[in-house]
């Protein structure tokens, strides 16, 4: 790409909407279904305007029946469609857990390879908007526990724009977790941005002293922390996992082997978590490369509270990331 | 809405068709009796749920379905699979855990799958198959295919939230799905009257604006007639229908059930309505069946089952190296 390459100013929300629109235009089998995706325009306005453009058959408002419409997405996928199912938040996806875990993730294997489920489920995850304990959790790590599904966490405009099509092309169920704090993120995106891979982690910032390993809503915080750490003479690398299942161990280990230190930042809780999994993989694959024990910056082990100061205290923040790195590396400033 | 006492049929049946219905019920009965033996002999393991007593429902119901219609069933689905055309050999091999089984030995008794006959599985989560059926029907409707999805489930599923979500969604979107509730009165060991405040199941369906009626599930002809009435309506865009097949399970819930929850007397009473023997008697009365016919049916079925067992015994174990196959697809997008 040349310096003059054309870009457009766009938000994460708009990038996602463009991705859905492109999918609907490219493949007549694609349709969007979920609560308030049509008339209302989407709980987070992602699908705003799509009903008018594509009609109620393809932008399908559902009753508040998560299990039925997620399961219907599985059945429709088996029946030759390419559904995009939207669940308002990851907390609500608990009401569809049976369908996701017992059906979507199992049927291919249980049927001896006869029935694959080409389904995409999108949902919002994460805290930071004072929505309290039933709208703010980060349970994508749970889903990453389940063989048979893929788990994506687009953290950039490119990924918001490009992961959906690749997910729809995948023959198996793919879950896309969109951090609620990212929808208003605005920036420049290549005018011709399109599909991106969904199996590699990405080094978002190169560094030599420590690897900050993160994804989704905390990527921005990790990059900001890395920028602040330069004042202390610490050159941090930032790895964006992008896909939580299958986890790209290679990119993680390569980074740690370069920097010899790792701090994992995850808005999920630390106990029994994806951050624990990453830590274990580093132990298994790069133990002798480490100059310090792996550290983690995760959410406090509490249901996310409503009050702003408490919510902020519960979540990974730039200063807590900076502190964790300084404790590990030492202040070189 | 149609809520009436369970319908029984006294209609005359054409001889060849009648003998076929009887043969299909006998196939299920003898196949499962053999399964029980093989379970005791430790050839079949895991859970084994027998359909014995309920054969008329699957046999009658399947008659009204076309080859490109879809079936969604439960963990008590050997009968449905057999009548649908999944071979006895591949079902038996599946129960043996052999890779020649209809699910390559990965599903077992509770998870028979067969793409060729659009048999979308035994589902072992009560109520868990209903959303799939709704989705299969949605795909047909969106693609303009005049197909029907028949979804079988027990009365226990009625207590699940998924049941109500699916009744509503199917009716709201007028989807071509036929809900076939096999009411055998017990959800494992819990009687319907001990778990539901309203035991009229058709009333629940009609509350979702869905035509529904009870059917004598011990009468294969009544089961077929009900389906012959419902299927064309569903296929032609009439939205979902609900049939409550009133039936009874003669055997235990699974092989680990001492049946403490029901009286032996009750079981004996229901056995007087055995769908196989009553249909036989009826055909004899009408002069449609003689000893020779019956012997031929029994001999044919015995031969089929013997072959199925032979096939399963000769089957092979999938190499352990293949363990992680089919967690994800091996082919790219179709």
Which helices and strands occur, and which strands form pairs?
The complex is a heterodimer of chains A (333) and B (334).
Chain A: E1 7-11, H1 12-26, E2 30-34, H2 50-54, E3 59-61, H3 66-78, E4 82-89, H4 97-104, H5 107-110, E5 120-125, H6 140-143, E6 150-152, H7 157-169, E7 174-179, E8 186-190, E9 202-205, E10 210-214, H8 219-229, E11 236-240, E12 243-245, H9 249-259, E13 262-269, H10 274-286, E14 295-299, H11 308-314, H12 318-329
Chain B: H1 15-40, H2 55-62, E1 70-74, H3 78-84, H4 88-96, E2 119-123, H5 129-142, E3 149-154, H6 161-172, E4 177-183, E5 186-187, E6 190-191, H7 192-195, H8 201-206, E7 212-216, H9 220-235, E8 241-246, H10 264-271, H11 275-285, H12 291-314
Parallel strand pairs in B: 1-2, 1-3, 3-4, 4-8, 7-8
Antiparallel strand pairs in B: 5-6
Helix pairs in contact in B: 1-2, 1-3, 1-11, 1-12, 2-3, 2-9, 4-12, 5-6
Task: Enter the CATH topology name of chain B.
Answer: Rossmann fold
The rounded Rg of chain B comes to: 19 Å
Low-confidence stretches of chain A: none
What would you call the structural class of chain A?
alpha/beta
Q: Give me the CATH architecture of chain B, please.
A: 3-Layer(aba) Sandwich
């Amino acid at each position: 790409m040349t310096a003059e390459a054309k870009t457009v100013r766009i938000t994460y929300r708009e990038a996602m909407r463009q991705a859905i629109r492109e999918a609907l235009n490219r493949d007549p089998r694609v349709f969007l279904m979920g609560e308030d995706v049509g008339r209302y325009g989407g709980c987070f306005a992602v699908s705003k305007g799509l009903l008018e453009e594509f009609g109620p058959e393809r932008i399908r408002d559902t009753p508040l029946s998560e299990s039925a419409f997620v399961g219907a997405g599985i059945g429709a996928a088996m029946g030759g469609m390419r559904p995009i199912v939207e669940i308002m938040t990851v907390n609500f996806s608990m009401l569809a857990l049976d369908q996701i875990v017992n059906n979507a993730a199992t049927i291919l294997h249980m049927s001896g390879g006869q029935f694959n489920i080409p389904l995409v489920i999108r949902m919002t995850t994460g805290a930071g908007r004072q929505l309290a304990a039933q709208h703010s959790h980060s349970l994508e790590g749970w889903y990453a526990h389940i063989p048979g599904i893929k788990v994506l966490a687009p953290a950039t405009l490119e990924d918001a724009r490009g992961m959906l099509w690749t997910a729809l092309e995948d023959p198996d169920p793919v879950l896309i977790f969109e951090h609620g704090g990212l929808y208003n993120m605005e920036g420049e995106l290549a005018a011709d941005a399109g599909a991106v891979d969904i199996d590699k982690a990405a080094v978002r910032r190169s560094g030599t002293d420590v690897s900050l390993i993160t994804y989704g809503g905390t990527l921005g915080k990790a990059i900001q922390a890395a920028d602040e750490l330069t004042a202390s003479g610490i050159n941090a690398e930032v790895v964006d996992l992008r896909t939580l299942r299958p986890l790209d161990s290679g990119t993680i280990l390569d980074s740690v082997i370069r920097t010899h230190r790792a701090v994992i930042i995850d808005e999920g809780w630390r106990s029994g978590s994806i951050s624990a999994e990453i830590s274990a993989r580093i132990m298994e694959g790069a133990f002798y490369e480490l100059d310090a024990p792996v550290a983690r910056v995760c959410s406090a082990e509490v249901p996310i509270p409503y009050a702003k100061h408490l919510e902020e205290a519960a979540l990974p923040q730039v200063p807590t990331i900076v502190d964790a790195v300084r404790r590990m590396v030492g202040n070189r400033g | 809405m149609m809520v009436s006492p369970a319908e029984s049929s006294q209609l005359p049946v054409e001889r060849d068709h009648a003998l076929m219905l009887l043969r299909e019920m006998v196939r299920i009965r003898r196949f499962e009796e053999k399964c029980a033996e093989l379970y005791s002999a430790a050839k079949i393991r895991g859970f084994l749920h027998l359909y014995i007593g309920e054969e008329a429902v699957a046999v009658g119901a399947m008659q009204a379905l076309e080859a490109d219609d879809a079936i969604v069933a439960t963990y008590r689905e050997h009968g449905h699979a057999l009548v649908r055309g999944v071979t006895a050999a591949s079902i038996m091999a599946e129960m043996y855990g052999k890779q020649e089984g209809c699910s390559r030995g990965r599903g077992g008794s509770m998870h028979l799958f067969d793409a060729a006959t659009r048999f979308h599985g035994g589902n072992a989560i009560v109520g868990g198959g209903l959303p799939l059926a709704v989705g299969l029907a949605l795909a047909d409707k969106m693609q303009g295919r005049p197909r029907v999805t028949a979804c079988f489930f027990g009365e226990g599923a009625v207590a699940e939230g998924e049941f109500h979500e699916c009744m509503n969604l199917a009716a709201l979107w007028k989807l071509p799905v036929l809900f076939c509730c096999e009411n055998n009165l017990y959800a494992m060991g819990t009687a319907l009257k001990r778990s539901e405040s309203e035991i009229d199941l058709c009333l629940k369906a009609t509350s979702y604006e869905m035509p529904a009626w009870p059917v004598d599930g011990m009468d294969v002809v009544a089961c077929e007639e009900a389906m012959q009435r419902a299927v064309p309506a569903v296929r032609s865009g009439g939205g979902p229908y609900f049939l409550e097949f009133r039936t009874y399970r003669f055997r235990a819930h699974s092989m680990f059930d001492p049946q403490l929850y029901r009286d032996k007397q009750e079981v004996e009473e229901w056995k007087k309505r055995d769908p196989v023997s009553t249909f036989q008697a009826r055909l004899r009365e009408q002069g449609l069946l003689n000893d020779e016919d019956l012997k031929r049916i029994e001999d044919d079925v015995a031969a089929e089952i013997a072959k199925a067992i032979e096939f399963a015994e000769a089957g092979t174990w999938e190499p352990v190296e293949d363990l992680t196959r089919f967690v994800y697809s091996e082919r790219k997008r179709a």
